[in-house]
Amino acid sequence: xxxxxxxxxxxxxxxxxxPRADNVVLHRPFYPAVEGTLCLTGHHxxxxxxxxxxxxxxxxxxxxxxxxxxxxxGSLGTxxxxxxxxxxxxxxxxxxxxxxxxxSSIEALSTLDSVTLMYPFFYRPMFEVVEDGWHSxxxxxxxxxxxxxxxxxxxxxxxxxxSVCPSYPPAVIVPKSIDDEALRRVATFRHGGRFPVLSxxxxxxxxxxxxxxxxxxxxxxxxxxxxxxxINATLRAGKRGYIIDTRSLNVAQQARAKGGGFEQEVQYxxxxxxxxxxxxxxxxxxxxxxxxxxxxxxxxxxxxxxxxLEASNWLTHIKEILTAACLAAQCIDREGASVLxxxxxxxxxxxxxxxxxxxxxxxxxxxxxxxxxxxEREWLQAGxxxxxxxxxxxxxxxxxxxxxxxxxxFLDCVWQILRQFPCSFEFNEHFLVMxxxxxxxxxxxxFLGNNESERCKLKLSQKTMSLWSWVNRHQEPxxxxxxxxxxxxxxxxxxxxxxxxxxxxxxxLRWNRSxxxxxxxxxxxxxxxxxxxxxxxxxxxLRRQLAELETDDGMQExx
Amino acid sequence: MPVEVENVKLLDRYTNRKPANGxxxxxxxxxxxxxxxxxxxxxxxxxHHHIATVEKLPLTTSGCPLLIHCxxxxxxxxxxxxxxxxxxxxxSLLKLSQPVKPEELYAFSYNPKMxxxxxxxxxxxxxxxxxxxxxxxxxxxxxxxxxxxxxEVCNTYPPEIVVPKAASKATVLGSAKFRSRGRIPVLSYLYxxxxxxxxxxxxxxxxxxxxxxxxxxxxxxxxxxNPGSPFMYVVDxxxxxxAMANRAAGKGYENEDNYDNIHFKFIGIENxxxxxxxLQKLLEVCETKSPxxxxxxxxxxxxxxxxxxxxxxxxxxxxxxAVKEEKASVLxxxxxxxxRTAQVCSLASLLLDPFxxxxxxxxxxxxxxxxAMGHKFSHRCGHLDGxxxxxxxxxxxxxxxxxxxxxxxxxxxxxxxxxxxxxxxxVYSCQFGNFLGTCYRxxxxxxxxxxxxxxxxxxxxxxxxFRNPLYKGFTAYKELKPNTLPFSFQFWCGMYNRFDKGMxxxxxxxxxxLNCMSQKMKLENNxxxxxxxxxxxxxxxPNEVCSLSKIVNASVESSKTPMLNTPQDYxxxxxxxxxxxxxxxxxxxxxxxxxxxxxxxANHHDLPDLNSTxxxxxxxxxxxxxxxx
Lengths: 559, 629
What we know:
heterodimer; A: alpha+beta; 7-stranded antiparallel β-sheet; 5-stranded mixed β-sheet; B: alpha+beta; 8-stranded antiparallel β-sheet; 15 strands; 39% helix; 13% strand; disordered C terminus; Myotubularin-like_Pase_dom (chain B); Prot-tyrosine_phosphatase-like (chain B); phosphatidylinositol-3,5-bisphosphate phosphatase activity (chain B)
């Protein structure tokens, strides 16, 4: 999985002024300081100690570096590296020039402009690919699953050149009765061309969840009859549907001035609109920055900590997203109504809501493969702009509007549900943490680009490895499997009371306190369950043996 | 006396869900509510002793509301059809929940129908002498003395106390005169490995300048009982300001100059009044109807509750560290040495000694540091009608500290959270004699050993449900060094919102693992049975003795793992669209296993209110129309 220490990649040679430095001291959480040789390669920062056992070393992907700071005391330089996975490490480098060179190299290498220079394009896997993840969750396959339960939908390739909607995949699922021509017209009426498409089909009662972007009604109430025809096609005769707008009514009204808007009752009489405000953009990023700051400052007393936790608003966002997702799920499962979800662009809060509602409603999404399919469908193919949103993490200095931990919040919400239903998920917390890490920095191509169109142009499926190829390489034993899992086919309603929501320690406190005793508990739990499984298998085997012997006896007697 | 009122509604604390309708009964010991509207008959039992407050709220159209707050943090909101009935229930409950005479307490009438011998053996289950022996006492430095057998040293201490061997009777009696209420320094815990001891007492009557030679000798004797250390700590667990104020009343704290080689230190734990009002604020936050995240966190901060918990934990950690790492003895006191001192000493013992993290150990610890040393349970828990200013959640805080430790060290305790909750319940229930009265002497007068039962054997009977499946045994961890940074403390939903089941995880890992444990026993038996059977039939396991008599079919039933944790009732439940919290524990009158399982993962949720959202939308829409016109 690793490149050699020497600057193998010619492209980066000029960025690396000092490829190695000796007597560098590394400080990191939970480990004693270690001295060694620092090497810079095109994509990694490597520290190897001189110890023979090679135990103490650091391999850090440059793209994982969120920000760096340098300090000098005499000629001893110190570089503090803050990572996107929230870890903070410190390197003491003797020699001012070396230190400055290394710092500027790291800075340059961690902020490469061109995607094609990123590590996934250079990474060669050391594992055997059992199944190519790029083909694991094709829309055609998802559609096949749908076709087995309903024939009211079709797979449309109206967007195969990405000309109708640049952020949609080539194939989308739409009502059978709506032809491609109508889709093209609806696309002109929806922000960014994101016409309503199927997000989820609830087998239990045939209700559906659609998603789109806002309608472009503008101030003069522009309308589009194909648009209402499209969404009405999802309703049963005489039934009403719900439109969940992820903006407050106020924000939605203001959007009209910029050509956007929302569905007016008069034009959509069969739909009831509900506004559930979910925060977006850099407000979320600022929330993340504040939360991580609070977690990292160990000088706080209790009052200060609680007040910082509150002021970060992170848990408020968690509550608001989960509340909206529960609402969507309730409309479908309890009210027996179909739902359309959108905000403005339909690429952020919309996807949080539609994907979490599916976690609540659909047991398949709570399996490892099912969750991968969900991420693929509702995030990657649905055009969540990962590259923009995850460009920087909690130590961002740039504070660009487009940086936003939208996917991170989604994972946190999933963790909250997992905590409330610890036996309903096939995956465990490590799985979610792993996805968080890879969304921000990865050797795999999965989260590169902002949509399918960009991924296509980058030829990611030919030039990079899919994260799913790695995750699914072996079935057992997996460190991502939840030992408590017992498949259940039910809807799981999480509580959104503040008392029920917690700080995701596994991510936010990961580098701030030792998890030794919690890890031991997890291990112990695993052992208890594994032992029982083995016992059960043994009993079953013995029983079979006994039955065989008895039949043999019986046969002997009768013969 | 039995009161029976029909047509009583029980409101769901958080939701607009249709309230239960049923009958309310008052018996001599319990309030019982039988829900007649449910498909399955459900009962809610509330012990009169558990009732903290009863309030009659203003009359509403549906009847007369009666709000009951319990000491175990249950809140029950009844609506009674007729005002007169309501008033009758109200006045009865006021009387029943605040007995005046100790003889009226439940423990004196509680009769589990067991032989007299068993009852007596029950009281002998915990023997503090055995615990001192475990510490190696008596030894060269410490002795168990009956100096207090007639309570001439201190009337709130037990007859037998542990003091340094070097302290003469005159020293003991002299020191008693110089300590508030005669609560002289006695041993709480001896760390056998290095002879460092934790001792406890009350504040000295030092005023601004008073001294007492015997008291100084006493401290010297304690210090010298630990020859490994040249000094000892004297820890005053009060905030400095409070301790200084006490000097004006002729009390105060030790002057470092008057005692040889002591290191004096304040640890600012607040007094019982601050703690009482802090809990009050916390409970208000817990009871808030649909609070925002901000409301909750701000309320949690303003209550100061976790700040106090952290202060107690910090003090415990300081003590444990002094003993273990600095090898120094510590003398701890507050004002009277029966509240903060009890919290801190018992916590330090728990951190230092794995024994106290077992079932038996926690019982010993509570008997030793709380019951024997005169924590005034009766006053702090308000067992009898009395001064409300004496009530304070001191023991609750200790219980929470243990729970916080269990969160950080999930494999270090033999018992689980339910054990703590059960003990906490019984501290208030007055069903057992252990927590009655304020000190040993009072319990003798009350004849609790003759007239009541002890809680501990009763708890041990239910050991299976209280055990921690993750417990790694006595030797896995020695001393615990908890992280006391603020983020390491969590809000204890299981205690303060215990009866709001909708807020708790819907699937319980503990139940799952407990189930695994019993499953394991069955499977192991099955395997042995089968193996015994096989060799007889020429099987491949010749080491086993054959036993024909055992039949295998018993194993069939366990071959299918019960899905204990599957929320199977989500589907059958009436639309829970607009529901959220549950308020009461629901007891089935006919215990049916399935139903019981269902209760384990309550079916209530705190879901957003669709209707109220609608109302907002609709009114917004109307406004919008108006603007258009």
